[in-house]
Amino acid sequence: MTQSILVIGGSSRIGQAIAQQCGSFGAQVSVISRQPAPLETGWFWYQDALQSDDSSQACIEQALAQQPDTIVICNGVLHDADAMPEKTIRQLDSTQLAQRLHSNVVIPAQYLRHLFRYLTRTPQVKVLVLSAKVGSITDNQLGGWYSYRMSKAALNMLVKNLSLEVRRLNPSACIVAVHPGTTDTPLSEPFQSNLPQGQLQTAEQTAQRLLKVRDGLTPAVSGALLHWDGSVLPF
Ligand SMILES: NC(=O)c1ccc[n+]([C@@H]2O[C@H](COP(=O)([O-])OP(=O)(O)OC[C@H]3O[C@@H](n4cnc5c(N)ncnc54)[C@H](OP(=O)(O)O)[C@@H]3O)[C@@H](O)[C@H]2O)c1
After folding, report:
1. Which of 81, 152, 175, 225 is 20 to 30 Å from 219 by CA-CA measure?
2. Which atom of ligand 1 is nearest to the CA of 102?
3. Which residue has the least CA distance to atom 6 on ligand 1?
């Protein structure tokens, strides 16, 4: 069980549920988010409104004072006020694609770069980067959602690459990408009506599942893309 957790992208519905559950077990909770701190959480909260290289470095440095044994990166955007995911390549817009790559890959990569030194020096540290099954190239039978799928596939490569680099210096670390399962959050909200019965989880259920995955992580799976039940998904 985690004693100290850092949740990055901590305004995420799933991230909030993870923070709440860890807090209720007595773990120390630190959050980095673009959003300002809500009132009275009892968590360490570092607002990174700019998400610049300097601001993210400063937030990471402050958050590492709590010596997290677990780090969860939640940043991910599927749709926003300007665009829904593409059904066909004819809807692909290069500005939107660049924005999805930025929020889904560049931002996690920036935080992970600033975490690198800590990851190489902290025994048994665990990092869960929230990805998506739709980012698996092997699993893709449906097509569509170009920008989101491409950005999550790239995120999976980031995790794999980093796991290899960290392993050389700290073989006890474990860094994984995880598919949280379809969860009732603003991200999935427009796509919930056609889901098979029972597929939609609450953020609390997903947080429980992810913390169970966290507890079962070993260095042997470092670099993998995991399903919410802890099984390995194909890249
Ligand atoms: N919900 C699902 O069904 C589902 C399924 C598969 C995968 N996922 C993945 O799970 C993770 C958490 O998603 P959620 O469902 O909890 O979504 P959510 O509640 O909509 O949270 C959105 C997250 O993305 C960050 N974000 C939003 N706009 C951003 C931007 N422009 N640049 C950088 N970061 C930005 C937010 O960080 P701030 O705290 O800084 O605002 C927050 O962490 C995401 O990576 C998502 O892809 C979710």
Report:
1. 152
2. 32
3. 132
> Pairing relation of β-strands 44-47 and 4-8?
unpaired
User: 100-138 pLDDT, tens per residue?
Assistant: 999 999 999 999 999 999 999 999 999 999 999 999 999
Q: What are phi and psi of 30, to 5 degrees?
A: -120, 145
| Structural domain spans, the chain | 4-233
Sheet (strand 4-8) strand order: 44-47, 28-33, 4-8, 70-73, 126-130, 174-178, 225-226, 232-233
Instruction: Give 139-194 pLDDT, tens digit per residue.
Output: 999 999 999 999 999 999 999 999 999 999 999 999 999 999 999 999 999 999 98
pTM above 0.85, yes or no: yes
**What pLDDT sits at residue 31?**
98
Instruction: Extract the tokens encoding 76.
Output: 């991910």
CA distance 84 to 146: 11
**CATH hierarchy code of domain 4-233:** 3.40.50.720
